[in-house]
Here is the input.
Amino acid sequence: MNKIKKIFSVMGFLVMLAPVILLAQTMPAPSTTQSPTPGSTQIGAKIDNPFNGGNDLMALIRVILSNIVMPIAAVAVVVWIVWAGFQFVLAQGNPKKIDDAKKNLLWSLIGAGILLGAAAISVVVENTVRALMN
Here is the structure.
């Protein structure tokens, strides 16, 4: 039994590591730029914005919410709903387990509502701030 746990642990680790390895991006070839003259303070490197969302605070918040927080939270909500469905199946008519499954489903739907509400609130706040700035 211990050997099986180790095998599944290693397999789980490899499954989680696979996207990191398989979806890794290659680095672009370095551009041929002129080297700075001696004594100058110019640096021949450029740091691009990793979020590609703009250079103001509202764009940064929008990009973080839409590209990082929302996808992770959406996956978590879906996993939680699926888990609640499994709990319904595994309850096998046991009223206590069915109540627990109902509570999990309710809280996962509340989480989905909070997620949608947060997205709506961020859009409203962004539009309000933009209207005040113009």
Q: What stands out?
A: Residues 50-134 form one domain. The chain has a mean pLDDT of 80. The CA atoms of residues 22 and 96 lie 44 Å apart. The radius of gyration is 24 Å.
